[in-house]
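Q: Structure tokens for this one, please.
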Amino acid sequence: NTQPAEHVVKECVSQAGNWGHRHPPGSPHLPHRQPPVKAAVCVQQLAQALEKLQAKNSALKSANSQLARQLKDSKAEHAAAEAAVVARDMVLASRQEEVAQLKADASSAAARAQVAEQRSAQLESGRS
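A: Here is the predicted structure, written as tokens:
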């Protein structure tokens, strides 16, 4: 039976409403309706439909679990990427502090060198 499980359920339920209400042959009521399916056949069809729905449900649960794992992995990757960015920012800030300190040291050394040159020039001029 290749009908979707949902269709089988609807069909059996609609036919079950006619059980015990057979109209005599040639009756003008429900002229296009076929004789109702026997209850045993409907029960079998419903059992098959239930199996299909359970299989579909199982597949959906499995897919849902897989998506949940992927989401968890993605969140972990995102957290790791954020941590890496924070670490890089800290390294960058540290290097910027080092550069600022080196510039200050260089500026101080240049100022001391200039003072030393002036003193040296004064001493030279004082000797002559």
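A few notes: Residues 5-21+31-127 form one domain. The CA atoms of residues 75 and 120 lie 67 Å apart.
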